[in-house]
Write a structure and sequence with these properties.
794 residues, mainly beta, Immunoglobulin-like, Maltoporin, Chain A, five-stranded mixed β-sheet
Length: 794
């Protein structure tokens, strides 16, 4: 009898169960792929590649809840069975607080759901600040710091003399580091075509490979919209008098001028963006004029026959002529380059004039198969060419390809697997001619439990080889037998995110990473004025790991919404590469004080990349971001404080205290008693807040970093180096640092007026207090600057 009742019940339920069919589009009628559909009966479904779905319902009434990134949740209530397919439209979210990021897992996620720390900087925020270079925009983010084109996240990097990067910079998910120097050419990145910056903190090599040792700076371009958009931005700035007489090298007014134009639109199956940019600067330092011209854009094609395929091409072309400043003439004349008093032709001048050309072409294809799996093929050709006044020309070409497969499975599983290939060719008088090849496979699996707990695990295996040398990616399989190696380097990552309450998320993560030496670090052989750079073909790869525990708490004050994020982190690095000053004469050449002999000691002092540091950085970070309104007052905030304790773990005392060798100090810390890593801070604080009342807005931006305790000991040793005729490197630096030992604070101000929705006029003051400060030894930053900016949205 019981068996009969069970069978009867099952058959009755199956007989009553009915399928509902429907389709989901955006407000413009475009099908939405992958929309999650939940019912209040616990049944789930997703839309296919054409926006259609089928879901089984046991009884009516029923509520369907539709969710998708970038769109507002939609609730549809059905009291009875619909006789026809239902059509649902979803509205895009306009609340910037609910940020959507891609860099954490190389797919779209809400920022509160990721397992690592991420900051988002929107393009409008960058434009309002009057920023002329992506490097300065990155410097706005809590925990991030830039120094001469090098990005450091939570103290992971110091001063690298323009070679190598521990932070991977990507444009639309593909690396933007040059093939020769391994650095990001920020001046070539089209800010005028930028949608947002995502800054991911912590080891990230599993998805992005070598160079992501310290984190990711992910730049995403704008996509064309059906409404179309044309934006024109012009700004002019003038530098005020420097805070003291020795810095005032000219009586002329020094100007910056910048003009950018952007246009984009999406039609039924074809879309495009195009932008142009021009920049001219007199430079606030002697001999550092800049002229920059850039063109960029994209094409997008969606065949009408199928909604499953998207084809596109993204491109940029930039040219620049610039004077490159390296170090000062003296602390007294800090805006004058060392040697030649601003004349690049003078013997011993450290001023370099460079003509730079950058070309990037990115064809790509995205395809959804019948099972709704996503296939992406992203490719890139990237050329960087530098021509210098001294004839030290360099051309680097990169061809890059990345295939990624993404599958969403039942039970809230998401699988991502992919493969990459990268081929580099370098022709250079500085480094010689070289080729390299880089191949990798990666995978990541994500699972969500009870709609609260998200777990993630990832793996990568990478092969890297320069010329036909032994692969840098090799690992040793035996501690006693160095001949037992494997050419592919494996790394892992894991993470978790738990939603404690609707607006409270706890996260934890651990990741491994590595960085292969750049061509410049290994093979560079040159001199800049008094400074020699020596090659080191024995340079080895560096590796590390990072771990983090954090809490993200949402809040609301009337219509003002935001997040408070608190985290603790630890990063550890082994075999870190750094340029170290010393005496690098080969063993086969006897030292001599005779300038006519090959062993003349003056020719063998300088810098060379060395595997030096074993380091650990422990710290904590607090950030607050918010946007919205309280009554008629609109408020936007981005605040952050980072505490770092970056210490040296090297057991070798010579690394900390240095050694003297024929009149120069090899290695060593300027303050060895602190045991703190060179070119780092213990404290960083940043705050930006903007108020808007009706059409008037005012914004304040402040940045503070504590004193840089340690630099290279040779810069402060006071030893007169014979290679430059008994001149000191960076004369006056020790006394300068003793005087400026309280850290640096910079305050910026902006005031503007919106003429309706189309036009905006603003006045900006950078470095309002006209403070004198440096980001590294011998590099005093700009004085106060006044700017006028006009923007038109047509």
């Amino acid at each position: 009898m019981k068996l009969f009742l069970i069978i009867f019940t099952i058959l009755s339920l199956n007989a009553y169960s009915q399928e509902i069919k429907g389709s989901v589009t955006d407000t413009g009628g475009e099908p939405l792929i992958g929309v999650l559909i939940n019912t209040d009966q616990g049944v789930k479904s997703r839309t296919d590649v054409e926006g259609n779905f089928t879901i089984t319902i046991n009884q009516f009434p029923v509520s369907l809840t539709l969710s998708m990134y970038d769109f507002k949740d939609k609730v549809v209530k059905l009291d009875t069975y619909p006789q026809e397919s239902i059509k649902i439209k979803m509205e895009p979210t306009t609340q910037e607080l609910e940020g959507v990021v891609v860099s954490a897992s190389r797919r779209k996620q809400n920022i509160e759901d990721v397992t690592v720390s991420i900051e988002i900087i929107k393009s409008d925020y960058i434009t309002n600040k009057g920023i002329t270079n992506i490097e300065k925009a990155i410097d706005l983010a809590p925990g991030a710091y830039t120094m001469d084109g090098q990005v450091s996240i939570r103290g992971g990097s110091g001063f690298a003399y323009g070679a190598g990067s521990r932070v991977m910079v990507v444009w639309n998910d593909l690396p933007m580091l040059s093939a020769d120097a391994g650095d990001a050419k920020f001046e070539s990145i089209p800010m005028e075509n930028l949608d947002q910056i995502e800054i991911l903190k912590g080891a990230s090599s599993v998805l992005y490979g070598s160079g992501a040792l310290n984190g990711i700076v992910s730049l995403r371009s704008k996509e064309p919209t059906k409404e179309g958009e044309t934006k024109i931005n012009y700004q002019i700035g003038v530098f005020d008098k420097a805070p003291r007489e020795g810095l005032r090298w000219t009586k002329k007014s020094l100007f910056d001028n910048q003009l950018s134009i952007y246009n984009g639109q999406m039609f039924k199956k074809f879309g495009y963006t195009v932008s142009a940019y021009a920049f001219r600067s007199d430079g606030y330092r002697k001999g550092t004029e800049r002229d920059r011209l850039r063109f960029s854009g994209s094409f997008l094609y969606k065949p009408e026959r199928t909604k499953r395929l998207k084809l596109g091409l993204d491109y940029s072309f930039s040219m620049e002529r610039k004077g490159e400043f390296l170090i000062w003439e003296s602390a007294e004349y800090g805006y004058t380059p060392s040697g030649g008093m601003g004349d690049p032709y003078a013997p011993g001048s450290t001023l370099s004039y460079i003509e730079a050309l950058r070309i990037r072409i990115d064809p790509y294809a995205v395809f959804y198969d019948k099972q709704n799996n996503k296939h992406s093929l992203m490719t890139r050709y990237y050329n960087t060419t530098n021509k210098s006044l001294g004839g030290y020309d360099a051309t680097a070409n990169t061809i890059y390809a990345d295939y990624k497969f993404e599958r969403r499975m039942r039970g809230e599983w998401v699988l991502t697997v992919g493969a990459t290939g990268k081929w580099d060719q370098i022709v250079s008088q500085l480094y010689g001619n070289h080729t390299s090849q880089n191949y990798a496979m990666y995978g990541q699996i994500e699972k969500t439990f009870w709609e609260k707990l998200s777990l993630i695990a990832g793996f990568r295996g990478e092969f890297y080889q320069v010329n036909n040398n032994i692969p840098d990616s090799r690992i040793y399989l035996s501690k006693t037998d160095s001949t037992k190696t494997f050419p592919i380097r494996p790394i892992f990552r894991v993470g978790a995110n738990y939603k404690v309450l609707p607006f409270t998320n706890i996260r934890a993560s651990f990741g491994q990473a590595y960085r292969f030496p750049s061509i410049a670090e290994r093979y560079a052989s040159t001199s800049v004025g008094m400074l020699n750079i020596f090659p080191n073909e024995n340079l080895q790869s560096e590796s590390g790991w990072s771990a983090e525990l954090g809490v993200k708490q949402g809040f609301r004050i009337k219509d003002f919404k935001g997040f408070i994020d608190v985290s603790g982190f630890i990063n550890e690095y082994k075999n870190m590469m750094e340029f170290t000053f010393g005496f690098y004469i080969p063993d086969s050449i006897p030292p001599s004080f005779n300038p006519n002999l090959p062993g003349y000691v003056g020719n063998w002092y300088g810098f060379r990349a060395e595997n030096a540091e074993h380091a650990r950085i422990v710290g904590a970070e607090l950030s607050v971001s918010g946007t919205g309104s309280i009554g008629p007052l609109e408020i936007t905030t981005l605040l952050g404080y980072t505490y770092m304790h970056p210490i040296v773990l090297n057991p070798d005392s010579s690394y900390i205290y240095g050694t003297e060798n024929l009149g120069a100090v090899n290695g060593g810390l300027s303050n060895p008693e602190s045991n703190m890593l060179k070119y780092r801070f213990s404290h960083m604080a940043k705050a930006d807040i903007q108020f808007k009342l009706y059409n008037v807005f005012v914004g304040f931006s402040g940045r503070y970093n504590s004193f840089m305790v340690n630099i290279d000991k040779s810069f402060e040793s006071g030893v007169e180096v014979v290679l430059i005729g008994n001149q000191q490197v960076l004369p006056g630096l020790k006394e300068y640092r003793e005087k400026h030992n309280k850290g640096d604070f910079v305050l910026d101000l902006r005031l503007g007026y919106d003429f309706g929705k189309k036009y905006q006029l603003s006045f900006l003051i950078n470095n309002v207090l006209n403070n004198e400060y440096t980001t590294r030894p011998g590099d005093i930053q700009p004085p106060r600057q006044f700017m006028l900016r006009f923007q038109a949205n047509i």
